[in-house]
Structures are given as C-alpha cells and as structure tokens.
C-alpha cells in the first residue's frame, strides 16, 4: 500500500477520501490550514498545510509520501492562491520530493471553456473553472507527474450509490462519497494514469468503469477539446 498525502484534508471530499484510503490499507498524511478539523482515524497524520507558503515549505510536509491528492478548495474565496497556484505549488513540491503519482480533483469540463455556458451549474462557477483550467493545464503540460484528473459534475451531500457514468454528457450531479470512491480507486488502476476522468451519476459500478477505462482523452496544448 502507499503513503498518501492529501492536500485540503479537512474538506468534505477529503474526509470521505481519507476514510476510503485507510480502509484500503494506506497510510495518510492529511494537510490543511485547520489540521484540527481533519478526521481522526488510525493511520492518519494531520499536518499544517499553508498553500500560500513557498514551494520548499510545502515540500517539507509532503516529503516521504508516495502519492499526492489535491482536493483543496476555497469555495470561491481564494481562487488564485488556493485553487490555481496552490495546486501548482503542490505539483512543484511533489516533483521536488521525487513523488511521481499525482491525483487532482477538478471540475466537469474544466479544460473545455466552450462548454461552461451550456450548463447553468457550470456557468455559476465560471471563476472556479478558470482556476481549475490553469491548474489542470499546468499538470498536463508542465510537469512529468504520473497524473490523473478527476472531473466530477456538481457535488451533493447525498449518500453514495457506488455507481457512475464516465465521459462527456449532460451535466448532472455526483454524491460526494462516489467522488471520493473514484478518487480512491484511481490509485488502484495504473491504466488511469494520464487520464482525465469525467464522472457523473450513473448505473455502472465504479470498479467496473475504472478497470475498463478507455484511451486517454486528447487535448491540444491550449487544453481545449479539438
């Protein structure tokens, strides 16, 4: 199993993600501005993480881990320094530490700005999608990390179903536990490396979708779908 660093470790998705990672036998180091709010479980170490800090400071708290998950989010309050450049700094820190595997929580169609105005839910979070657009692009084009980008539809607090649909489609919703499960299971399947996984509620078991994932989606250098 892996020693996993979770950036944004006190959030809603992170809490479910950490539970799933521990259930799978991983060791977790969870970083947050408020480490006291991180879920308390055996195998979880809570550390202070300031995404406004210099890259070398972030690298120190990530050192010794095998995998980085970025699930931090400012909920619109600090988009540039947290959602955009904070993510980039964790990528830089991962490479500085020699960590190869990096899994990003993003947003549906974040790399396809032409889609944002087509869905009311996406149009409402345009500034967030702009932040994710630049963070996702940096990960793809400016790092050598073994990345996976998970792009869910709108998050809900409903119970998880364990079922999803992957790929493009009408913007719907995803229960947070299902998003966390996809993030967790992404680590199990090496074929998810280099993939942008769009997900929404569906009728296919998560394990089946990830174990039979299609070829990676091709994006040009601007991050726009051809």
UniProtKB/TrEMBL annotation:
Gene3D superfamilies named among the record's database cross-references:
NAD(P)-binding Rossmann-like Domain
| Superkingdom of origin organism | Bacteria
Provide the NAD(P)-binding domain boundaries: 8-188
Transmembrane ranges? none
Q: What is this protein called?
A: NAD dependent epimerase/dehydratase family protein
Origin organism is Limosilactobacillus vaginalis DSM 5837 = ATCC 49540
């Amino acid at each position: 199993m892996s020693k996993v660093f979770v950036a944004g470790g006190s959030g809603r998705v992170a809490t479910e993600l950490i539970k799933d990672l521990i259930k799978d036998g991983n060791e977790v180091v969870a970083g947050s501005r408020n480490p006291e709010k991180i879920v308390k479980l055996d195998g979880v170490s809570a550390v202070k993480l300031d995404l406004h800090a210099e890259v070398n400071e972030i690298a120190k708290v990530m050192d010794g881990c095998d995998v980085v998950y970025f699930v931090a989010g400012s909920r619109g309050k600090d988009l540039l320094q947290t959602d955009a450049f904070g993510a980039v700094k964790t990528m830089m820190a991962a490479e500085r530490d020699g960590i190869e595997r990096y899994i990003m929580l993003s947003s549906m169609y974040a790399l396809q700005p032409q889609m944002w105005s087509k869905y009311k839910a996406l149009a409402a979070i345009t500034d967030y999608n702009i932040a994710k657009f630049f963070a996702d692009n940096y990960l793809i084009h400016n790092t050598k990390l073994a990345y996976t980008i998970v792009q869910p539809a709108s998050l809900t607090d409903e119970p998880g179903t364990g079922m999803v649909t992957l790929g493009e489609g009408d913007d719907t919703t995803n229960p947070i536990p299902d998003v966390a499960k996809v993030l967790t299971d992404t680590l199990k399947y090496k074929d998810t490396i280099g993939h942008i996984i769009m997900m929404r509620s569906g009728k296919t078991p998560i394990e089946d979708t990830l174990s039979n994932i299609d070829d990676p989606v091709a994006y040009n250098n601007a991050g726009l779908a051809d």
